[in-house]
Amino acid sequence: MRIGVVVGGAVTPGDAVLVAGDAAVTEGVACERFRLAANPLHGIGCACCAPRGPAAEALGRLFLARARGAVPWFSRVVVVADAVGVAAVRAALVGDAVTMARFFETDPSAEGAANQST
Known about the structure:
By secondary structure, the chain is an alpha/beta fold. Helices cover about 35% and strands about 20% of the residues. The protein is built from 4 helices and 5 strands, in the order βββαβααβα. Strands 3-2-4-1-5 form a 5-stranded parallel sheet.
């Protein structure tokens, strides 16, 4: 079962947090950070041999920590990032095969409506 990723919003029990940069994070939740390169242009290489992006790698570390029991079990990841960081996360969710197998983007307004109806 894939894990939902939501951009922004409140962190609730059972969530993990993915942070771009050094933003503050709620204590007691699983957290992984990523940093984007100052020069986003990659070197020579095609898509099959270019390295994974920092957001994809951070989501991978978060997934592995969950699978190994190193962090509390979570069912959703809340992204805390500026527009460039959000774009990097969304690019990982649609362009990185491993990330696509483990995660999917959810709509926070749809989640709120679903949670209120149950």
